UniProtKB/TrEMBL annotation:
GO terms for cellular component: cell envelope. PROSITE patterns: THIOREDOXIN_2. It is found in: Cell envelope. The keyword Cytoplasm does not apply. It comes from the Bacteria. Residues 61-202 form the Thioredoxin domain. The keyword Zinc does not apply. Pfam families: AhpC-TSA (PF00578). Keywords: Cytochrome c-type biogenesis, Disulfide bond, Membrane, Redox-active center, Signal-anchor, Transmembrane, Transmembrane helix. This is Thioredoxin domain-containing protein. The chain crosses the membrane at residues 17-38.
Length: 203
């Protein structure tokens, strides 16, 4: 009888010791995890397309797909409309902009100077002015001496929505088959433009 009681007490002590050790290990582990979280700086970096700090080549659900069609009036308001379908078989650059957008102002001279060279290579460049009056758009084009085609999105911004534009400027590169092959967020510079043109197979 005494042996049985002694054995039972011994097992009980061992069980208590095991529980004590396991419990303390769990507590220590939880404290270490909490300390790590408290002392590790929280990263605020983001690669979201609507982050103003993001500039450059960016993903888009449109890449590899047919570019959304549009049929929109010229900014100069002479009654003519421009359709994307009219340029089938040609590489097309579609640039979304607005006169109040600082990066748009920064890239306008780059696009205009590049256009003077690109048009001889058969590249079509179309600017789409969004979210303002035709008068504001016309003044912007005159200010920078822009001569490539520029049209106005409708009041609801349907074309901007169709292309998934989140901020100005954004540029889409459409190949000869009418598919989007590249998407650039923010102001384009000469280096960025050449990088994207390579995807259009334009030298």
């Amino acid at each position: 009888m005494e042996i049985t009681e002694t054995t039972t007490r011994s097992r009980s002590r061992k069980r208590n010791i095991v529980v004590f050790v396991v419990t303390n290990i769990l507590i220590i582990g939880a404290l270490v995890l909490l300390w790590t979280q408290l002392t590790t700086p929280v990263s605020t970096a983001t690669h979201s397309p609507d982050d103003p700090s993001v500039v450059g080549d960016a993903p888009s659900p449109l890449i590899g797909k047919a570019a959304p069609a549009f049929d929109l009036p010229l900014v100069n308001g002479n009654g003519e409309n421009v359709r994307l379908a009219d340029y089938k078989g040609k590489p097309v650059i579609v640039n979304f902009w607005a006169s109040w957008c600082d990066p748009c102002n920064a890239e306008a001279p780059v696009l205009q100077s590049s256009w003077l060279d690109l048009k001889s290579k058969g590249v079509v460049m179309i600017g789409i002015d969004g979210g303002e009056t035709a008068g504001a758009g016309s003044k912007f084009l005159q200010k920078y001496g822009v001569t490539y085609t520029n049209i106005m999105d409708n009041v609801g911004g349907d074309t901007s929505i169709a292309y998934g534009v989140t901020r100005m400027p954004e540029t889409f590169f459409i190949d000869r088959d009418g598919k989007v092959v590249a998407h650039w967020i923010g102001a384009l510079d000469s280096t960025g433009l050449q990088k994207e043109l390579a995807k259009l197979q334009v030298n």
